[in-house]
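note to self — DONT lose this again. spent like an hour looking for the file last time. sequence + predicted structure for the chain T wanted, 428 res
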Amino acid sequence: MQDTIFALATARGKAGVAVVRVSGPLAVDSLTYFGVAPPAPRRASLVTLREGDEVIDEALVLSFPDGASFTGEPVVEYQVHGSTAVISRLLRLLSMQSGLRLAEPGEFTRRALANGKLDLTQVEGLADLIDAETEAQRRQAQRVLSGAISRKVEIWRADLIRAAALIEATIDFVDEDVPVDMVPEVLELVLGLRRSLEEQRLGAAAAERIRDGYEVAIIGAPNVGKSSLLNALVGRMAAITSAVAGTTRDVIEVRMDLRGLPVTVLDTAGLREAEDEIERIGIGLARDRAAQADLRVLLLEPGQETPDVELQPEDLTVFVKADIFPDRATVSSLTGQGLPALIEMIAVRLEEKSANAGVLIRERQRKAVEKTCEALDSALNWLYQGSANLELAAADLRRARLEMEMLLGRIDVESLLDEIFSSFCIGK
């Protein structure tokens, strides 16, 4: 019989309510230790938890039957007052019951996966939802958790199974008269599937940026106001500002939420001929990070020459110090003039980059799709060479189907699970 596990499902520390979750065959039996009758399935009961004659707490208790819970097992939730003393006492008393043990990190979700309540992509979506800091991250994670990838894979699998069945039928009847040539339909199915997969593969980069965050590099000559702009954008003193040119030697990173998108703003060293070795290293680092960033904001004073830096068409050039040059500049970090418009322009640029985001949010998922595409490309190659190679095409379609199964975690993913679930908290 599988162990019954328990854990605190809410954050540690003082709170109005804390939830302790118990999952497994002895979940409902755990109530009898406290002198509590099991509530009706999916209903809550207000009860008094006791150890003998001593009252532990007043609690709201819920039960979920086998197959109808998050884990797919019988589950009981204890909603108690969120004091450290109450939580500690409840967890200790649960640990004293035979057959119950404290859950390991991610074990509730791992059981949900094992019991078919979630597939691996949904597990990854759940992990991202827990870690979500911005609205865009929340929406993306929620879409994956709700089964967006799973639904697409089922459509892809149906086309793949149909194509494989047609090829197998052609192979089986190769020595007989087949009334219809099935290869054109197979080609149509595989090409359509290939286009759909490629669309998702191309959208994976944008989806990963939403998950991990965009980088915006502020670049320009020394003392042009890069640190001042960073401080103005984030609303606090994040970087030291000084009239002395070259104050910033390292890359300063500040995380912010920009219209729901996770953004890291980079303040970089001023671009000029270095005067010493340390400044030379800082400028080199600034150029490297600026090249890797998703967007560059070049600051210029009116009449100033553009530094030697490579810009992309979507990058922004901003004339600063409007408080000094009111007729020739548009932004002032000192007065705030033009900052809302600049933030709007940055947000629009990043939203354009995220507009084509697909449902694949992790590199593992993208690689699984790439391997599926490789198998389909090989199958197409054999199909174009004629009926003599249909068995080779069929083998490649089987390989493509296996890659799809791996995407959902249905086969050959045990080596990944420990790594994935290690990021979960104990109560999840």
